């Protein structure tokens, strides 16, 4: 696994690894909340975009769990070879899951549009989208700082997943708000289709990781505009 920076001292690295574990735990807890609310409200209100957002959160839970395991093994001083093998297997599952989810959202969006299924407006969905839009950039900044300090390409890739999730949250919020305040029911399946762009992009890069072992999940080659200052 490629290293980003020269490792700091052992005590400093252990401290940063501990922070990495904590921030990943926070991410996992939030993804569980996000998935539960999005799927529950999404199927209740027939919202394609919320359903897709919730299913993506479940997929992110898998990736977060593997990363948490990796950081824990590294903190204990164990070898990461077995973890890296597990990461690649999980990457295959994640990539296939993202592509399958994309197909589901496309089919569901088309069906909803043709049948003119009217999604019910939900303040729960809007509240979730607003919360995710605020929380995910904070997680991104924390993960990226720690990733640079410990030289973790995997954590840096996970940080960019948080950025992708923030963009998805904004897309979701736009669709829900248009439906809630303007009554544009078609904005919901349209937002669902817009989510497919992020899912396919993420799936392609996770597939790259599965094939090569290089940590580029969610586009870890971060644009300069999104990099944090040294």
According to DSSP, the number of beta strands is 0
Radius of gyration over all CA atoms, rounded: 18 Å
Give the overall form. elongated
How much beta, percentage-wise? Answer: under 5%
Order of helices and strands: HHHHHH
Distance between the termini: 22 Å
Class from helix and strand fractions: mainly alpha
Q: Kindly state the mean pLDDT as a whole number? A: 80
- The residue fraction in helices comes out at over 70%
Point out poorly predicted stretches.
1-7, 219-226
- Main sheet overview: none
- Number of separate helices: 6
Q: Can you describe this structure?
A:
The protein is mostly helical and 230 residues long. 80% of the residues lie in helices and 0% in strands. It has helices at 10-45, 48-75, 81-115, 123-150, 153-182, 187-212. Helix 2 (48-75) packs antiparallel against helix 5 (153-182). The longest helix is centred in the first third of the chain and has 36 residues, at 10-45.
